[in-house]
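User: I'll paste a sequence; please echo it back and then give the predicted structure.

Assistant: Echoing your sequence first, then the prediction.
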Amino acid sequence: MRVRVSWTLIVPVLAVVVLALSWGRHLGPVPVALVGVLLAGAVLAAVQHAEVVAHRVGEPFGSLVLAVAVTIIEVALIVTLSVSGGADSDTLARDTVFAAVMITTNGIVGLALLIGSVRRGLAQFNPEGSGAALATVAALATLSLVLPRFTGNSPAGEFSGPQLAFAAVASLALYVVFVLTQTRRHRDFFLPVEIATTRPADERHAPRPSSRQALASLGQLLLALIGVVGLAKVESPAIEAGVRAVGFPASFVGVVIALLVLAPETLSATRSARRDQIQISLNLGYGSAMASIGLTIPTMALASIWLPNRLVLGLGPTHIVLLALTVVVSVLTVVPGRVTRLSACVHLVLLAAFVFLAIRP
């Protein structure tokens, strides 16, 4: 009997092997390029396995799997780069988290809405669930990234010790309450419109994977994530050198990290949008933004006890304006429960403005 081995198993295993061989070594241009290819393959494999797990456990639990997974990657990268970095590491957590918020709320959401509106004329979703998610993201972003500029503790945007502890506890509490709301009492708010109104929540067009398949995919997902985290760390010197070489600000490293860790979310969200499951795409987008703040900030607050660098969280004036504009536009997008491609394009233009201003502040 022939045993079929999938590329989604081979690539993560190969990524971990290459990680073990390359860790702590100086790599030349060719090995760096090969590591980059494996990194991209590990991201694609992670998406495949996350979707199998998501299909088994059903929505909205499935969206949480990938959101929490990519946040683990993000935290690991921020901590490792903060330990090895210099003065620029003071703002790495802020730059990465804010980039993640802008990429998710404008990039992932905008792309999903564009795909849905082009396919159907209107992209439809549940405003109750998406509105609750957006409100939580706005509160988390304001408490953690805007308030440090206005507390008077530091002009650079640092919280005092008690203020940081409060922001960390509040962020984690909001995230936990949202997850309980999403998965228990008001689960139907976060289901695709057609699933919530016309058929049972767990019903799917394709047969659900068995428990054995789901557990195997979960294990391979964890393996792929280890490969992504490790190889991204191996690639980080090349990323930082590349950012300096092209003349971009050091803060752009945070944007690159956010793009790397959110690649699985983006691919999964676009696939859901192509299947006319816009609500799942929004769950992924807003859920990732929420996890990025609600889990990363408490972790970094705890890690700041041992890290040698300061933890600067306060956004500058330009980024505060972009965040405020994103929240206003997102509210106008979410409230009706259906949008045209115009709303999608507005979000994508906001993302383009963020990237442009990150390159040319």
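The first helix runs from residue 7 to 22. Strands lie at 123-124, 338-339.
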